[in-house]
Amino acid sequence: MTSTKTRQGKAAEQAGSEDDRWHAFDSAVIGARVKALRESSSLSLRDLAERSGVSAPMLSQVERGETSPTLTVAARIASGLDLRLSQLLRLDETGAVTIVRAGERGRGGSVKRGHSFEVMTAGRPGQRAELSRHELAPGAATGTPEDPPMHEPGSRETALLERGSLVLVCDGLRYELDEGDSVTFDADLPHHFENPTSAEAIFLAVVSAGLRRS
Question: Phi first, then psi: what are they for 91, rounded to 5°?
Fold first, then answer.
């Protein structure tokens, strides 16, 4: 049985190790990461201040790299972003390159309803884009209960039609797409794809989060 003193000693060692790693980070790097994570979550400085308990002026200074927050403040910022401190610091990541093997793709949709898709990017904190591949049977449409929810405010989507023909219905307007065509639109508007033909359609879609419309 582990004694209380031993557990406290291990906790102190872990905290000390985390503190050492924290001081190794450049304030400008931390600031840029906080800003990217905040914007990808569509949060204003005031929103994050309310969620984290860190004042908006302090958050602004951190994002500009003008000050380096203490470990306690950084932990509060991470909590306001719904992250662990290790995720904010990217300590959970193994490197700058992430490979998703073909057999590791996330899959969804419903073959019965005629729409299936694969998510081809790994879900990581602060990731601002997601790539997916969709197969749409003849007469089928996206937007079924099995599909992903409506994208967050400010999202943009680009779709590339690999095979077949499609109709994009976005905000009540219809846009016809042929093989090889691509389209970019505001993904936070009501939208779906339809396959009005007798052949299967395959398309790739990239959704970028937190990109405000101009």
Answer: -75, -20
